[in-house]
Each structure stands twice: as structure tokens, then as C-alpha cells.
Amino acid sequence: MKYAKIIRFDKSDLNIFPLIAEEGELAIVGTFSFFNLNEENLKGKMKQAFSNGFLGIPSFGYSTFITLTEVKEEDLKKLKSCLSDCFLKKYGAPSLEHAKKAADEEVNLMLDLCSSHDKGSLISISREMSKEGIKENFRHLPKAESCAEQNIWTFEEENK
Hints:
Order of helices and strands: EHEHEEEHHEE
Largest sheet: 4 strands, antiparallel
Strand order of the largest sheet: 1-5-6-7
Number of strands: 7
Radius of gyration: 16 Å
Number of helices: 4
Distance between the termini: 36 Å
Shape: globular
Low-confidence stretches: none
Helix content: 25-40%
Strand content: 15-25%
């Protein structure tokens, strides 16, 4: 099944976010992580995470881009379990049942977002505060048709 993973093209994420997602980990939209922020709190690295960051799990760090790839059902079960635990312990969900429901909703939101795009596509997010709450916009960067059967996104270690 198609799902989103963190991808990093350069080191810029390392400098702009308060906590950095690990390349290759599963991602969620993660807007819930900003529930307690207001315009006055949105400064510096936290503002950048709010404005342009997807949430990687299990690091709970941020990334500018996600790429769509195949994942196993078992990977999504682990993702939901990790999220449920976080909702219970960090965000104070009233019960494990409530935490599991919230985790399911987060994963289903990403599954829905991924469903209309091809594997290898990239997605970015932009958020802003409005009078109605947080407004999200997603930008889809399709994989070039000439590359449809090629694996053009690779992860390579940098030489230091």
C-alpha cells in the first residue's frame, strides 16, 4: 500500500527545525503537534516546523518533504501503536481507546492524501493560522512520466 516516508535532499532541514525527522521513517501530517501554539509562540525553528513540516514517526521530528512509497500493513500497525502511545503519554488522551482512534485518524489522513498520487511523488505542506484555526495546503510534485519505472529517489550517505 502507498504511504509517505521522510525524504531529505540536503542538510537544510537540519538547520531550520527544532527536531529533525529521520530520513526514511514514516510520516504523518502532524498538525496536532501545534495545538497549544498561537501567533506569539510561532517564532524561529518552531515557526518553520509549523509552516512547512511533516512529522516523522518515531522521531517526532520534522521534515520539509515526504515521498510516496510502498509500505507493509505491519509498518502501519507499528506506526499506529507508536502514535497511540504518544497521544496517551504526551498529549493526555483520556484512554487508550481515544488514543487509538486519534492515531487511526492521523494515519488515515495520510493514506487519503497519498491515494491520489503515484509512488515516487513528493509532497510538501504549508500551514497558516486563520481566524477559523490552522489552514493546511499541500503541494504535489509528480514523478516525471519518463521516470515512471525508474527508482529516481535514493538515499546515500555523505562522505565527511
